[in-house]
């Protein structure tokens, strides 16, 4: 099968996000200038550079109560910071609850009964129980083709690692079973890894 996206795929559901999978999930927490907090998962999320460490996530939807798209983006524009917590399998239901189309007045930490903790270098909360959390300062927002498509890039200025996820000085994602997004409404979980050494390294 071959199709051109501009002409449609002819399938019952769009296969695109099932092709580029699995994808890590950034559980993005933000705080507005009024002190209100928001927590939402983004599966268009990844690390993009080592020095300085940087991450990205993309927002691809709009909300009727926000001119800038989603609550996360509006808060980041106001404050210039965000925190990306990593999602473990045990938090799957709480993460899913925070993905709903809630109004801007809703605090998803409270809605999903998620413990929060203050960040160290930015004015924002993080998921206290997360295996890892990346405190980020906004570096740029890029407008992508299409309606409501925004790419948010941030420099990581603080890193939280849960002690039980460190094994012999290495961060072990099998300790918490990292959750990842597949296509449609499907997810997967990392329970085992293997090592391949690069040629010449």
UniProtKB/TrEMBL annotation:
Keywords: Oxidoreductase
GO MF entry, a single one: oxidoreductase activity
EC numbers, comma separated: 1.5.1.-
Flavin reductase like domain residues: 18-173
Gene3D superfamilies: Electron Transport, Fmn-binding Protein, Chain A (2.30.110.10)
The protein, known as: Flavin reductase family protein
Organism per entry: Plastorhodobacter daqingensis
């Amino acid at each position: 099968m071959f199709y051109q996206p501009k002409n449609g795929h002819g399938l019952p559901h769009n296969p695109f996000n099932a092709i580029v999978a699995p994808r890590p999930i950034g559980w993005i927490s933000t705080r507005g200038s009024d002190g209100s907090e928001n927590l939402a998962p983004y599966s268009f999320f990844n690390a993009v550079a080592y020095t300085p460490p940087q991450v990205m996530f993309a927002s691809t939807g709009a909300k009727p109560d926000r001119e800038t798209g989603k609550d996360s983006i509006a808060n980041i524009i106001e404050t210039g910071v965000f925190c990306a917590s990593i999602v473990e399998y045990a938090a799957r239901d709480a993460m899913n609850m925070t993905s709903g189309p809630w109004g801007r007045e809703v605090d998803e930490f409270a809605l999903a009964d998620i413990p929060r903790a203050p960040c160290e270098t930015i004015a924002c909360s993080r998921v206290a129980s997360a295996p890892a959390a990346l405190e980020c300062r906004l570096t740029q927002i890029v407008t992508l083709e299409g309606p409501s498509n925004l790419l948010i890039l941030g420099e990581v200025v603080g890193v939280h690692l849960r002690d039980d996820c460190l094994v012999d000085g290495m961060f072990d994602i099998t300790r918490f079973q990292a959750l990842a997004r597949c296509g449609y409404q499907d997810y997967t979980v990392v329970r085992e890894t293997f090592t391949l050494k690069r040629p010449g390294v």
